[in-house]
Specification:
3 domains, 13 helices, 23 strands, Ribosomal Protein S5, domain 2, four-stranded mixed β-sheet, nine-stranded mixed β-sheet, Rossmann fold
Amino acid sequence: MAKKAKTVFVCQECGYESPKWQGQCICGAWNSMVEEKVLPESTTVDKRRRSGSIAVSGDSQAAGGKGRNRPSKLMEVKSGSYTRMDTGIGELNRVLGGGLVKGSLTLISGEPGIGKSTIIIQAAAYIAKKYGKVLYVSGEESEEQIKMRADRVCKELTDNLFILAETNMENVSVIAEELRPEFVIIDSIQTMYTGDLDSAPGSVSQVRACGNELMRVGKTYNIPIFIVAHVTKSGELAGPKIVEHLVDCVLHFTGERNQELRILRGMKNRFGTTSEIGAFEMAEEGLIEIENLSKSFLEGMEDGAEGSMAAAVYEGTRPLLLEVQALAAPANVGFARRSSIGVELSRLNMILAVLERKAGLSLINQDIYVNIVGGLRPEGTSVDLAVALAIYSTYKGRPCSGKTLALGEIGLTGDLRSVQNSEKIVREAARMGFERVILPAKNAEKLKSLGIKGTTLIGVKHISDAIRVF
């Protein structure tokens, strides 16, 4: 007698399952429980055994795979022996840590129209030409729509690039096992569903089940898989967090849809660093790599403008120079407004408090606006000094020099703390033509012995000293 499906309530935030509905989940989220019906585990196993997707005996051929895994001695495992594939896109290879690892699962997310499908079809065309068969599974677009995009952004198409418009996960698994491609793309995971569950595609249970099945296919046949995911209104990844833990690499595309610059950042990477970023320019022929990112961030910076200061951050393996803009205006009614783009609001409030107490500025009745030009959201605190000097410039009406760069972290006492990789940042500033660099005294003492030509290093210990030499 067939077993009936059971009803569970699944939290859309964390994936927690409960036999009954509850207002607050154990993760703290309210009203996040959704009713879903789940088939018994035995039914799912029986289906896979009948379809031959899992082994029923010691014969590895019954599974259509490479056999049952055996334990290995950790001392005999070779470290760093991953085989990487060139995607044909240098910035994408940089973020992935040197290329695409075979058997890995990569999740890429971003707002609609940001360029996810564009960069994937460009990489798919190159891999199909160089390595072999590539399977592009689309649950959102038709084959004709993908062909139109490929004709626009790909230089050359080969017979090894296969397109499949399918949303059933069982059918995708069977075709992948038969075709044995070198690369698989799922666009997107929220449109995929498995017949083992009665819930709608995109639900917590469906996304989790389809993610597990993709991991099985990728690890069993050593196929790298790219999974496209949607994002919520707040910019976070839609669906359960378990998918992010499941995959090997999480990439996030950011940028303004009305601008050409696109930034690809690695949020998680089991085979490389998570501090790398890739820069692209959206053009009619697709995404174009930006090699000199500092130049693109500073190309609109004017010399002698009030509230405009050059700053620097170190992302991954390269320094980036960028422009910080600030505007101070008298508050008309009520409390003064604080607004920032690219800088955390809590960090901005701290810098304003230091300027009031340690530099003698009266900003309580001033609306303050801060913007990192280009849409980049730098990590770390190396832009603190540039933000403070830009605010001082716009408040006092003093123009900033386009040949001066500020670098340093501001403490609550007003002192400047040293930053990492200052040598590479200063060399990049000298290459870009900056004549003066204001930085913490500890960094300046270490760098003066290097004798970097064309750039004067000004070491300061306190925010008031930086304002004095500014």
